[in-house]
Amino acid sequence: MTDNETTMRKVPQRKRGQERVKKILDTTAELIAAHGYENVTTNQIASEANASIGSLYQFFPNKDAILMALSERYLEELRAIMGEQFNAGEAIDFFDQLDRLIDIFHDFYMDNPGFKPMFYGSYGLESLTQSGEEFYTDIVGQFDILFARRLNLPDEKRLLVTMVMVSIVKTQVTMIDEADESLRPGLLRELKAVIRAYIKSLMD
Amino acid sequence: MTDNETTMRKVPQRKRGQERVKKILDTTAELIAAHGYENVTTNQIASEANASIGSLYQFFPNKDAILMALSERYLEELRAIMGEQFNAGEAIDFFDQLDRLIDIFHDFYMDNPGFKPMFYGSYGLESLTQSGEEFYTDIVGQFDILFARRLNLPDEKRLLVTMVMVSIVKTQVTMIDEADESLRPGLLRELKAVIRAYIKSLMD
DNA sequence: GGTTTTTATGAGTGATTGCTCACATTCTAT
DNA sequence: ATAGAATGTGAGCAATCACTCATAAAAACC
Lengths: 204, 204
What we know:
The structure is a homodimer.
Chain A: H1 15-35, H2 42-48, H3 53-59, H4 63-86, H5 94-111, H6 126-150, H7 155-178, H8 184-201
Helix pairs in contact in A: 1-4, 4-5, 4-6, 5-7, 5-8, 6-7, 7-8
Chain A binds a DNA duplex through helix 1 and helix 3.
């Protein structure tokens, strides 16, 4: 649900309200991508979304709630498309599957500029950090299941491996996005090579 | 030089002034580590450093300048201790050398809590980003020289390898620092294993 | 048409915060 | 001792910004 009841002051009933909320979230994503969360004002969001601040605050209790709603929208979408690839089963080659997952994450990252500042650069936002961590734990869990099937490692070690791998992919995709455009394909290829070499070294 | 003339309104002449500046930087590091840059006020810094705001602004033209001065202090120190290890020459085993460099960076990170928020989570601070990038470029350059001696790769590819490696170490050390204390030794070990596997895969 | 619910409006408020400035104190040198 | 330079002080200014509230329009229902 995009309309999380705990983060919303009022759940929009009519279509007009729902469109308002959607427009506000879209606008917030754009503005955050361009200027960073701390540098975007609620008045700016409202104005850019063709709403009055009063209207904005009818639905959102405070500024942070807007970010949280946006975060949840992103996370659900990403969880859905990654879930498909996780359930690809044993038909596909293991390493190809890893490559595909990296590609999916990378594509999502590039397609949603507002997504980036959601996990990095937002100190002191308890609830947001929490929702990001939930997602992270979820992904680690998915990979752990995958690795349990494909790698022969003691549980404890496997968890470390998974954490490091997920963390590397997450941070490197960010780094690739920030790098010069001409370098991106090469960097993405090397990222895949790193993961491949690492996982292979665990199979000997 | 800690007393960078471009970021300082006035370079402290007397010992008292120099101690003031040092105390302000130390205090800023502590406060930033605890609450994040955006959440720390200049009045708070002054008060915590047993100085008046007026005194603070006698030396620093604005809040950002404090952060920049602090950043430079960190970067010089880190550059110095890493430089030693880079110049260890061919006497030491290549992989051991990489491990040592990772350890050095990790130790520095753990010993200087104010260092972390300096590179992550500070959107919209042009000059700071720039000084961090300079440092990054410098380190990549150092590694590139090292790799040129040890690996047989075309220049273009070697640069990509170096960038990815430095970036991974940088981000993973951050991640390790944020992880639960009991996991840290394991995560650090895996980080080294990743780098080792990756570099080894390039030597075949 | 009348009533109620939902949504819209934006000037204004209160709190925060980076920073100034007029003036005071301390140190150094002659 | 005295001048001059360096450093110290903190009340208060100006600007910003998240958020409120009294009121109005729009839509839904009878």
